[in-house]
Amino acid sequence: MGKSALITGITGQDGSYLAELLLEKGYLVHGLVRRSSSFSTGRIDHLYKDIHENPGLLLHYGDLTDGQALSNLVLNLEPDEIYNLGAQSHVRVSFDQPVYTLMTDGVGALNVLEAARILNQKKPVRVYQASSSEMYGAVLETPQKESTPFNPQSPYACAKVYAFFQTVNYRRSYDLFACNGILFNHESPRRGETFVTRKITRAATRIKLGLQKKLFLGNLDAKRDWGYAKDYVEAMWLMLQHNQPDDFVIATGNTYSIREFLQMVFSKLELDWQKFVEIDPRYFRPAEVELLLGDPSKAKNSLGWTSKTSLDQLASIMVEHDLELAKREQHNQSFQQ
Amino acid sequence: MRAVITGITGQDGSYLTDLLLAKGYEVHGIVRRSSNLQRPRLDQQVHDHSIYGKRLFLHYSDLTDTTSLRRILNRIVPDEFYHLAGQSHVGLSFEIPESTCELTAMGTLRILEILRDVSPSPRFLHASSREIFGTPVYAPQNEDTPLNPNSPYGAAKAFANQLVKIYRDSLGLFGCNAICYNHESPRRAENFVTRKISIAAASIKLGLQKELVLGSIDSTRDWGCAPEFVEAMWLMLQQPTPKDYILATGKTHSVREFLELAFQHVGLNWQEYYRHDPRFQRPVEPENLRGDASRAMVELGWKPKISLAQLAAMMVDHDLHRLKHSMRQE
In this complex, is the C-beta atom of B38 within 8 Å of any C-beta atom belonging to chain A? Predict the structure, then answer.
């Protein structure tokens, strides 16, 4: 029998790519989804449609803050691997909703670990915890590696640090195969539209087609190490196939400013970004993380993983996708008129 | 006038938003953060630049997150507060009882506690549910019918319903329960039975679907039309004294009848496409649910006008239009 996995956050960017990867590898994939009266499965609908030919994907209602329902589910499904990708993942929003962010990203991760701990007494289970480069915050050294101390700068990052240490703690105390993937920014056409890279590619392509006039942004000087989400989910899987549980930085090793990304995207569309971008102070974070640059050497040496897609290639992938969306929108407008 | 709506992205919230905007209100909606920016029911209003950011505002929060709710309310100081949010799927409440109670019962209590400290305190409407009667002691039910819930959702709503009463009687809150019987519309979520049927009728008509799988089709419901229900909610907060009101049509129909109406509308015989699957059956089916809305009719001058046949036609037409449009795109 093939392996099975439970993915929290399966409706998100990483969850949807990971589900694709695991289905290709022949896994039975279970996903945890929050109940909502508005359907939230846009990123995995293409996987779900084939349910009759490919009954490899099953969705279950739940919530990371509902520990009992989660434990019941894990004990019922007995997955070989659990990927905890569910979270309130927006850093700026975490300043408005600090308590909710900690409950979901911190206590939620603990609920997953607790469920795994119980299952692990019956049957071995491996856990992946989605940690984040935001934990380095006001960075104490550059580039950041596994030994770099955390210095979080947002409620989101504080919650992720809590989850990180609990994961290490469960590994040491209960002999649980639990890994932290410290992922630097990773983008894709499936990135949420409130995140800066996607906001830029959506706006640039809509501007190109005359659907939008201006793009409002916050700090253009922040520098990030941006990779392609599709490459990064491969690293998650590799961590759980490794001979021992460990923590890994997953990054490209290159850093670019938001300004440089803007330049890259707009020039692909033969536009001058300076004519369209305006600064809106509302988008500034109360405390900014200025420079993130990861050192992925450990992942390369131990897992044989490297980032395959350059930022320029990634920008092309996103622009191409969003241009298609914008064209469809244009078509819809003419249909409605 | 300024109103806050929880559950603004849902069926009732979106119709209430339309209504209040038409009446000149400034509307503030509370939304959960999700990486899927899907608010199809609000799309039209949100994309209208003369409305969004000027008379309609969305704020991120969650019914479990007291501090952010309090901060938002202190900033807005609303005249009216419509609490429509909750884990509203009865069948699912058996799978996720804890989070259902956390959101539906505790979520309501948290809001009541915050409103206690807001000055001046807004008029408050709680979207209660006929599920509080569960297996009712008698039919039709009115505002004095004893509560007898038979699902985790019903129990959570009963708790919330009673707390609103307590805050009204003991603490002087202008709080009302709108005890709503089923109310449907083209904006009903796709996993509720009426919408499942209207989508199936339209899809089968267009050759996109072959059969329709349902649980018990003998169960009966008192089905109204959502836009009419939100009108009554608004009326409740315009009265001189706060009270609870039953909102219902007073007529019951079976799922079978709805099936027949929906399929008839597109000239199909439902029996050729229907398949029974006991998995869709609830652990306990509510029975004998029929609401007596006399108080709302007399005191609010409210009267549901849309028949079930009209409602079914409206829903099927909407789904036909939507599906044809997406077929044309492909």
Answer: yes
Task: Collect all residues of chain A within an 8 Å Cβ-Cβ radius of residue B189.
Answer: 37-39
> Measured between alpha carbons, how far is B142 from B248 in angstroms, rounded to an integer?
10
CA distances from B34 to A34, A87, B60 (A): 10, 9, 10
- pTM, two decimals, is 0.85
Could you tell me where the DSSP H helices lie in chain A? Answer: 13-24, 45-48, 67-77, 91-96, 98-101, 108-120, 155-174, 196-208, 229-241, 258-268, 297-303, 311-336
Q: Per the CB < 8 Å rule, is B325 touching A90? A: no
Across the interface, of B32, B37, B67, the residue whose CB is closest to A99 is B67
**Per-residue tokens: B11:** 């069926």
First CA to last CA across chain B, in angstroms? 44
Beta bridge partners of A227: A186
CA-based nearest distance B37→chain A, Å: 7
* Residue of B64, B153, B78, B158 whose CA lies nearest to B111: B64
Task: Please report which confidence band the pLDDT of residue A54 belongs to, taking 50, 70 and 90 as the band edges.
Answer: low
Q: What is the ipTM, given to two decimal places? A: 0.74
Q: Does A93 touch chain B (CB under 8 A)?
A: yes
- Among the listed residues A152, A36, A37, the one whose alpha carbon sits nearest the alpha carbon of residue A101: A152
Catalytic residue among B153, B167, B181, B273: B153
Q: Out of A27-41, A314-328, B149-163, which region has the weakest mean confidence (pLDDT)?
A: A27-41
For residue B274, what are the contacts with CB-CB under 8 A and spacing of at least 6? B211, B212, B214, B217, B259
Q: Which helix (H) or strand (E) holds B90?
A: helix B90-93
- Average pLDDT for residues A283-287, to the nearest whole number? 82
Cβ of residue B92 closer than 8 Å to a chain A Cβ: yes
